């Protein structure tokens, strides 16, 4: 950008610069032709689209930039396009002396530089390629050391993360205690001839604190900590990954006792042969190197290898064999108690107002990971700042929670009809949830569009549940379908707004039938159908383990459950139509109702 401005400014000046003396004036092309035709031109110098020259006798001409004609001898003019033969022949006809200069006369210095440029480029590219090649050849201590791993050494003093910074996770901590003890006091284990598992695999959904926990182990043990993300092993050049692995293990072994931490190990550790592009790709080579390093420890080497993944299902079985990553520490999403503890960690240096009850907030965040909770605390602080508040209040947490869970508020105009439909839909969910026994209590009903949703009805379980009775699940199905049923009753029509409700209901019913044996006809058998990855919540593509007949029967049973649940919702809403109207009316008025509002409205309509 700057360069082009530079040239724009310099272009014209460069041309004016050719006006050698005051005597050379710029005239227009037709004046030039006139002079040529009248045979008054002595000589010209042609440069690309420019001509300059001398007149035989001074002529009175209008020159560029002046109004009055002036008498000139030397002129300069610009040609409208390259004239080639025509101009040359008419010049010759009139006996004009012609000389030509190349378009740009470059100084010898610049000629030298531009001549050099291609060579510089070629040599530069060559150096880059050679570097890559050297990386491949050069193991540590090899001829070159470009292959040195990127593993970062976290100094003992610097690694300040300890178990105190990791809230909850008591089980995982307990399991790692032994590892820490071994690193702190290896001789004790040796004396008794006990072998401590060298490879520890931390398994859990994203954001649950696996990386944090690994660091804390290093901090607790006070040993050097070499960490690398497995995706960093894989580089453009084949063989780099393998040499990095070798290098990292060598470094760690040179500083025992120490910890090697391989984050996101699934990116190299996938089952071999499963990838595209043939058997011997970069990843496979890296994995083989890793396996051989894991086997290559001598009994006396006090190095622990910790790896983390959220995809244990894709790991190559060879990694999980005894002697490699044979100790698995499962890190699940935090329960109520842990969520509260994690929140406490993340509000430590924030100012909260006195009414904030972390327990209540923890109760309202089932399913959130540690990273989500950290995000929640931060969003709450940002909300408070936006409102110019000194302290973070309960309402800030509430807003942050809605934002984290449902996305930001969509500012858009909604037609009155759409608003009405949404209000009845949500009122339907809320009313059925309130009426059916044993369902989760209502937390909030809102018709403010957020993220993808036009409205929402939030239910909150009183505590983390571990078992779900069939009656509870059936009622949950009814609640999920109630929005659609309300639309049907009031508007005698259906809308697309219920799509996600239907999806939720269908997958729940499928699990009830195919996994939890809740259909008498299908019987107490658990099929792979509808199974989700425990950490990813994504469905697995498993081979079918049942006949077409059974598949058909399951379809029938799933449908039956849903129809049954829908009928129940319809019954409840029809019996309480006046309350449905009241709730929807209030929602249209205020857009948000909390638990107390809903209860008050229902009580008032009953008395
Ligand atoms: P993972 O490696 O499992 O994806 P991280 O260790 O990167 O998760 O966790 C992300 C962030 O979430 C951490 O930096 C930390 O701030 C927060 N966090 C997660 N779990 C906890 C916990 N148990 N206690 C405190 N903070 C946590
Ligand atoms: Mg991580
Ligand atoms: Zn709905």
What does this structure look like?
The protein is extended, with a radius of gyration of 39 Å. 48% of the residues lie in helices and 13% in strands. Helix 15 (416-435) crosses helix 19, helix 17 crosses helix 18 and helix 19 (577-590) packs across helix 20 (595-606). By secondary structure, it is α/β, with parallel strands linked by helices. The longest helix is centred in the first third of the chain and has 30 residues, at 108-137. The chain has 20 helices and 14 strands. It folds into five domains: 21-100, Signal recognition particle alu RNA binding heterodimer, srp9/1 (2-Layer Sandwich); 108-144; 153-330, P-loop containing nucleotide triphosphate hydrolases (Rossmann fold), CATH 3.40.50; 336-406, Helicase, Ruva Protein, domain 3 (Orthogonal Bundle); 416-606, Methane Monooxygenase Hydroxylase, Chain G, domain 1 (Up-down Bundle), CATH 1.20.58. The site of zinc ion has 5 residues, from helix 15.
Give the SSE map.
Elements: H1 2-16, E1 24-26, H2 29-37, E2 41-47, E3 50-61, E4 70-78, H3 84-93, E5 97-101, H4 108-137, E6 152-154, H5 170-184, H6 186-191, E7 199-203, H7 210-221, E8 225-229, H8 240-254, E9 258-263, H9 266-269, H10 282-295, E10 303-309, E11 327-330, H11 336-346, H12 358-363, H13 370-386, H14 394-406, H15 416-435, E12 442-446, E13 456-459, H16 470-491, H17 499-514, H18 548-575, H19 577-590, E14 592-594, H20 595-606
Parallel strand pairs: 1-4, 2-5, 7-10, 7-11, 8-9, 9-10
Antiparallel strand pairs: 2-3, 3-4, 6-8, 12-13, 12-14
Helix pairs in contact: 5-7, 8-10, 11-13, 13-14, 15-16, 15-19, 16-17, 16-18, 17-18, 19-20
The structure holds adenosine-5'-diphosphate, magnesium ion (MG) and zinc ion.
């Amino acid at each position: 950008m700057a360069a082009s401005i530079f040239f724009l400014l310099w272009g014209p000046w460069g041309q004016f610069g050719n006006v050698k003396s005051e005597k050379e004036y710029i005239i227009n092309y037709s004046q030039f032709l006139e002079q040529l035709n009248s045979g008054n031109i002595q000589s010209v110098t042609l440069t690309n689209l420019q001509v300059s020259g001398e007149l035989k006798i001074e002529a009175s001409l209008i020159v560029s930039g002046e109004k009055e004609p002036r008498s000139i001898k030397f002129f300069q003019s610009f040609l409208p396009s390259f004239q080639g033969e025509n101009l040359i022949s008419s010049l010759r006809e009139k006996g004009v002396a012609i000389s030509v200069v190349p378009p740009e006369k470059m100084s010898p210095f610049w000629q030298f530089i531009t001549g050099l440029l291609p060579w510089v480029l070629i040599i530069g590219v060559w150096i880059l390629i050679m570097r890559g090649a050297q990386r491949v050849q050069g193991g540590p201590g090899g001829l070159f050391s470009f292959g040195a791993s990127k593993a970062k050494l976290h100094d003992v003093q610097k690694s300040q993360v300890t178990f105190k910074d990791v809230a909850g996770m008591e089980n995982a901590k307990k399991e790692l205690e032994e590892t820490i003890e071994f690193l702190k006091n290896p001789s004790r284990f040796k004396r008794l001839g006990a072998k401590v598992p060298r490879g520890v695999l931390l398994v859990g959904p994203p954001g649950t604190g696996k990386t944090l926990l690994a660091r804390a182990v290093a901090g607790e043990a006070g040993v050097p900590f070499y960490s690398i993300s497995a995706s960093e092993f894989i580089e453009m050049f084949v063989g780099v990954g393998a040499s990095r692995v070798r290098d990292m293990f060598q470094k760690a072994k040179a500083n025992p006792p120490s910890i090697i931490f391989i984050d996101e190990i699934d990116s190299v550790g996938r089952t071999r042969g499963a990838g595209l592009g043939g058997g011997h790709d970069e990843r496979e080579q890296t994995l083989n190197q890793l396996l051989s390093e894991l086997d290559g420890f001598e009994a006396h080497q006090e190095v622990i290898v910790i790896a983390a993944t959220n995809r244990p299902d894709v790991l190559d079985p060879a990694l999980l064999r005894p002697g490699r990553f044979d100790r698995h520490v499962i890190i699940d999403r935090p329960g109520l108690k842990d969520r509260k503890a994690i929140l406490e960690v993340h509000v430590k240096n924030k100012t909260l107002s006195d009414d904030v009850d972390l327990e209540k907030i923890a109760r309202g965040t089932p399913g959130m990971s540690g990273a989500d909770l950290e995000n929640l605390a931060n969003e709450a602080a940002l909300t408070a700042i936006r409102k110019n508040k000194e302290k973070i209040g309960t309402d800030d947490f509430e807003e942050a929670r809605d934002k984290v869970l449902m996305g930001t508020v969509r500012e858009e105009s909604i037609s009155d009809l759409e608003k009405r439909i949404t209000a009845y839909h949500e009122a339907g969910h809320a009313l059925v949830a309130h009426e059916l026994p044993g369902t989760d209590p209502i937390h909030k009903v809102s018709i403010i569009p957020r993220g993808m949703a036009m409205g929402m009805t939030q239910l909150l379980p009183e505590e983390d549940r571990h078992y779900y009775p069939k009656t509870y699940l059936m009622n949950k199905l009814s609640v999920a379908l109630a929005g659609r049923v309300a639309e049907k009753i009031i508007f005698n029509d259906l809308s697309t707004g219920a799509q996600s409700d239907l999806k939720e209901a269908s997958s729940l019913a499928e699990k009830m039938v195919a996994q939890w044996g809740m259909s008498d006809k299908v019987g107490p058998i658990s099929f792979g159908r509808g199974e989700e990855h425990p950490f990813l919540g994504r469905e697995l593509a498993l081979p079918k383990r049942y006949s077409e007949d059974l598949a058909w029967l399951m379809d029938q049973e799933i449908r039956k459950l849903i129809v049954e649940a829908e009928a129940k919702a319809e019954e409840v809403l029809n019996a309480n139509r006046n309350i449905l109207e009241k709730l929807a009316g209030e929602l249209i008025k205020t857009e948000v109702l909390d638990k107390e509002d809903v209860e008050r409205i229902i009580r008032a309509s009953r008395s």
